[in-house]
Design brief:
This protein is an alpha+beta fold and 177 residues long. The protein has helices at residues 2-7, 9-40, 44-69, 74-94, 96-111, 155-158; strands at residues 119-123, 129-136, 140-145, 150-154, 162-167. Helix content is 59%, strand content 17%. The chain is elongated.
């Protein structure tokens, strides 16, 4: 065991430094996202979700850097990543709707002007909706219409349609059954 640590001492130290630095970066990102979420009035669950997205991204970056630390050549890494991304790209093309909803959810976290409790009108030609936002999730908005119906509206469509704010914070305890 001692021989192992002596042989790979520089790689072990570099890995420890990488993990330490990425842990600090992750903590900064998570704290920043929570502050932005609190300032913009979004739910803590949405801030946690965005933090998870950042963590996954940092883990992928760590795997890439760790491969270089352990001596992989750029040509080998590019071959592996291009193959993996080709397979992922084909899979995501088949489920592009999910990816676009997740991306829209991230965009909405940082720049969506409406919050839970606001009454909005979505100007959709085929299915106009006037409802109160009950929840904003990773894939869709949960809306409660005046007649009590619950509607799930995809995040990618809400960014494409015109939306009017009818009443700020219309959600109160009497409207939830």
């Amino acid at each position: 065991m001692s021989q192992f640590f002596q042989t790979y001492q520089s790689e072990i130290i570099s890995t420890a430094i990488l993990l330490f630095v990425l842990s600090i970066i992750r903590a900064i990102i998570v704290i920043t996202v929570k502050k932005i979420g609190k300032r913009s009035g979004t739910t803590e669950a949405r801030a946690i979700l965005i933090g998870r997205y950042a963590t996954v991204t940092l883990v992928l970056i760590a795997v890439l850097i760790e491969a270089f630390i352990l001596g992989a050549k750029a040509h080998d890494i590019s071959l592996v990543f291009s193959s993996v991304f080709a397979v992922i790209g084909i899979a995501l093309f088949a489920i592009w709707s999910i990816l676009s909803n997740i991306t829209s959810g991230v965009i909405m976290f940082f720049s969506f002007p409406y919050k839970v409790g606001d009454k909005i009108k979505i100007h959709d030609k085929d299915y106009p909706i006037e409802a109160i936002i009950e929840d904003i999730r990773a894939f869709q908005l949960i809306l409660r219409e005046d007649n009590g119906d619950i509607t799930k509206y995809p995040n990618n469509l809400i960014l494409q349609k015109a939306v009017t704010l009818i009443e700020k914070d219309a959600l109160d305890d009497s409207s939830i059954l």
